[in-house]
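Comment thread on ticket #2218

A.B. wrote:
> Attaching the input chain for the structure job we discussed in standup.
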Amino acid sequence: MLGNNIITTIGSSTTDTMFYTDQMILVDNKKDLLQQKLIGFEYGAKISSQNVTTTFGGGGANAAVNFASLGLKVQLISSLGTDAIGQAVLDNLKEKKVDTHLIQRNSKKITDNSFIVNVGSFNEHVIFSCRGAYEDIDLSPTTVRKIKTPWIYLTRLSANFFPKLANIFEQVRHRKIKIAWNPGADQLRLGLTRLHRFMQDTYVFDVNRDEALELVIKIKGKDFKNNINVLLKELHKFGQKLTVITDGPKGAYVYDGKKVYFHPALKRKGLNTTGAGDAFGSAFVTGLIRYNGDVEKALRLGIWNSNSVIMKVGAQVGILTVADLKKHNL
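C.D. wrote:
> Ran it. Output below, let me know if you need it in another format.
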């Protein structure tokens, strides 16, 4: 694989069962900055839905399909079971023009899948995840040395991830690869002190506001003021070139060490938010590649793509295409 418009994505590939309901209570939990909103259901009740849909998902697969739709050549490193669901996931990726030759198959575990409850006026969600084949993904030095693309887009890593993370970043340093990193919950639990060694080799570090706050609170303490500009600058001290914080229906921010960039979310009510973060992050990186590092244009593309995705049910359904970029002057 040659050229600058080529990227390797690393992450999970799943099926998602989308369950919509209004039989819940949204609870404000302002006493805990790390769990500010909760969803409650009546204990012992039967919760019904008139809208249940099964779609394809997973952070790695979502990002890969986004990159392909937006005109980049993309290869995905992931792991699937040898079950029928795994084959369906693989067929979908091939149909979406994703290079699948580095995808691993695991006969001992099922393909990862998720049950996603969508609630509230913005159809925000809670994900119940069943981790399967992706937990055993091989990211040994032998595997990661096969990555020769100029960009890597890294999403959540599986169990016992630290050696895998170290292997990936060793390849990044050795080949001078630009890496965009949207870390999973397990990686975020390491805290900034242990993430620092990797962040200083990261080009784009992409988290949502709750994740950013959790990272900074571990360093600064629970009295830390939840201010977006301070959050950006505190995170940026750890060495990445671009710090990205997404803020749900408010929009997204980027800090390059000199200037804070912001683009508001588009004022359109979506059907669900699943995959919005993947759509934003992968489109933002696509914008950096397409527009020669122009942060403002990349940020705009990220916002438009994430908004397009939330207007459809499924993380891979509403993605913008190259034709859409021309139509919307992106």
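A.B. wrote:
> Thanks. Noting for the ticket: Residues 81 and 87 are 8 Å apart (CA to CA).
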